[in-house]
Design brief:
The complex is a heterodimer of chains A (about 475) and B (about 110). Chain A has helices at about 10-15, 20-40, 50-65, 105-115, 155-165, 180-185, 220-230, 275-290, 305-320, 340-350, 355-365, 370-390, 420, 430-435, 465-480; strands at about 45, 75-80, 115-120, 170-175, 190, 210-215, 260-265, 295, 400, 440-445, 450-460. Chain A is an alpha/beta fold. An eleven-stranded mixed sheet of chain A has the order 1-3-2-4-6-5-10-11-9-7-8, with helices on both faces. Classes of the chains: A alpha/beta (about 475), B mainly alpha (about 110). At the A-B interface, helix 9, helix 10, helix 11, helix 12 and helix 13 of A face helix 1 and helix 2 of B.
Chain lengths: ~475, ~110
């Protein structure tokens, strides 16, 4: 059994056909992690006992001859911004270094209920703030495809484990591109569902109007299977939508004849790497060959998405991160003599540079005298961005763009320039502001062998069409490489 | 332009202290980011409604009132199980067994 190419389906089949049992499979994965993970640093915490318990549970079901749940024995990794009961949960921050979560995030609970086995928690940028994983409070993650390069961020660890085969699939979070950008950099599939599609209960909050939970997998089908198990209303998250969950799997492999695919000119302008452009245009050609109608469109406010995003995301973050004060959980500075000192010294010692920068920017944008000029202005431009999408989605079914302007960059390359780092998310942030679903699917490699991702955006709650379209691109690429 | 005084004032609001080096760096970074976001002022938004969140626009019929739109998120006002007290206290840096303990709030 080759763990590097193992898919969700293959695991379930192997267990059903008794080629391997869940306990032995978990063992193999931990051996692989021990041997290979130190080179990339993708895991922060392993939860062997929990994995063992779940594996034994699946093996018992299989022995009894019971029908196995859809994700039976699938070894998964969870980004460390999702809480896992009785397991260390840090959000990649020193301020939560010793935090043991008292409950499970709904997404995690639902994956386990569907039979998945949680191997461990993955490294990420601190509080999911970053595009390279270099902002981890512990250690940076290296791109499994090239160890001198970043895996992307903030869900870099979750993308890296799937690329390295140290988990079959994983969960990440996406506030401005944090699933899609690392998915593209590591050459895996990553989906940000519609806002409200997957519960955020137990997701450590960064920017609540932009945060999403979503899956990584090696294939579009794997991602569809994981989404199927997580999606749907959760009474514990008031923003989770009370809408029926369709059968995502049934659309994967369906024809796309007559599907209207919009190509926004603003996503193919200055700053786009020529090799990325070539690979994405090739993917678009494949969609045309499969019978899609390719339509030129315009999303005129695109250039305002990054400034809008960094005002709204930081404003929300400054409020969400006020809870880390040393009083109830997490780190507390021992030097403090007064309450106010305890807050300041704890936060000074516990937060990294980027988190402090965003708290400062957000606090400034919300402060008296600046609220209208920055925060309110950004909220109004957010409306304009949403209108762009409303108008375009009256004419097309999906939008296709590059996921990132360049392939994975070098470690350290943008570490000292926050603005340059923010621009790594230029093609992904709008989907968060508007709430539409988006997927990245590999569509080729650069000459240096670095993966390139193609992004597909869909209408609200239309993950089905996004998945169907992504599968066509994936299938065409596989045919080319065969 | 953000001044050194602004950095001090905002750090105070955010309960951050920041070292002198961090303050110098913060001044530079905030000014560079704020100069970049200035471009939003190229847009006339005088007749545009602010958008605070996505859920109010999508997944519900456009003509529903806010109360109706979020009816699904409402529940009857009845007690339901929540995190037990001892589990909620387990991560606390300091407790007396019942309450969180913190340093003195008021100096005499």
């Amino acid at each position: 059994m080759n763990l590097d190419t193992l898919t969700v389906d293959a695991v379930r089949t192997a267990v059903v056909e008794k080629q391997i049992n869940a306990t032995a499979l978990v063992d193999k994965f931990y051996k692989k992690i021990e041997a290979e993970d130190p080179a990339t640093g993708a895991y922060l915490t392993l939860c062997r006992e929990r994995a063992q318990r779940q594996a034994e549970h699946i093996d018992k079901l299989a022995d009894k001859g019971d029908a196995l749940p859809p994700l039976a024995a699938v070894p998964v990794a969870i980004k460390d911004v999702l809480t896992t009961k009785d397991v260390r949960t840090t959000a990649g921050s020193k301020i939560l270094d010793n935090f043991i979560a008292p409950y499970d995030a709904t997404a995690v609970e639902r994956l386990e209920a569907a039979g998945a086995i949680v191997l461990g928690k993955t490294n990420c940028d601190e509080f999911a703030m970053g595009s390279s994983n270099e902002n981890s409070g512990f250690y940076p993650v290296k791109n499994p495809r090239d160890h001198s390069r970043v895996p992307g961020g903030s869900s870099g660890g979750s993308a890296a484990v799937v690329a390295a085969g140290t988990a079959v699939a994983s969960l990440g979070s996406d506030t401005g591109g944090s699933i899609r950008q690392p998915g593209a950099f590591c050459g895996v599939v990553g989906l940000k569902p519609t806002y409200g599609r997957v519960s955020r209960y137990g997701l450590i909050a960064f920017a609540s109007s932009l945060d999403h939970v979503g899956p990584f997998g090696k294939t579009v089908k794997d991602v569809a299977l994981i989404l199927q198990s997580m999606a749907g209303r959760d009474p514990m998250d008031s923003t989770s939508a009370d809408l029926p969950v369709p059968d995502y799997l049934s659309v994967v492999g369906q024809p796309v004849t007559g599907l209207r695919v919009g190509i926004p000119k603003e996503y193919f302008g200055e700053g786009l790497d020529p090799e990325v452009r070539a690979a994405v245009e090739n993917g678009i050609q494949e969609l045309a060959k499969a019978g899609c109608d390719i339509v030129d469109i315009s999303l005129p406010h695109t250039e305002y998405a990054i400034p809008t995003y960094y005002l709204i995301a930081t404003a929300e973050a400054s409020s969400n991160l006020a809870r880390y004060d040393g009083a109830r959980y997490g780190m507390r500075s021992r030097e403090a003599k007064t309450l106010s000192e305890m807050y300041r010294k704890t936060r000074d010692a516990g937060f990294g540079a980027e988190v402090k920068r965003r708290i400062m920017l957000g606090t400034y944008a919300l402060s008296a005298g600046y609220y209208d000029a920055y925060y309110l202005k950004a909220q109004k431009v957010r409306s304009l961005l949403a209108r762009d999408f409303d108008e375009v989605f009256a004419k097309v079914d999906v939008i296709v763009t590059p996921t990132t302007p360049t392939p994975a960059f070098k470690l350290g390359e943008k570490a000292d320039d926050p603005l340059a780092m923010y621009l790594a998310d230029i093609y992904t942030v709008t989907a968060n502001l508007v709430g539409v679903p988006g997927i990245t699917v590999p569509c080729g490699n650069s000459k240096q062998g670095l993966p390139v991702g193609l992004q597909i955006l869909g209408k609200h709650f239309d993950e089905s069409t996004v998945l169907k379209t992504a599968h066509v691109v994936e299938h065409a690429l596989a045919a080319l490489q065969a | 332009m953000v001044s050194e005084q602004d950095v001090s004032y905002v750090a105070d609001l955010a309960h951050l202290e920041l070292t002198p080096e961090e303050r110098t760096r913060m001044l530079k970074d905030l000014n560079s980011i704020l100069a970049y976001v200035e471009r939003l002022n190229q847009l006339d938004t005088s007749n545009v409604e602010p958008m605070a969140q996505v859920a109010s626009r999508y997944g519900v019929a456009k003509d529903t009132t806010p109360g109706e739109a979020f009816a699904y998120a409402m529940r009857s006002d009845e007690l339901s199980p929540c995190l037990p007290h001892d589990e909620a206290m387990e991560n606390a840096p300091q407790t007396d067994g019942t309450f969180f303990k913190v340093p003195k709030v008021i100096e005499r």
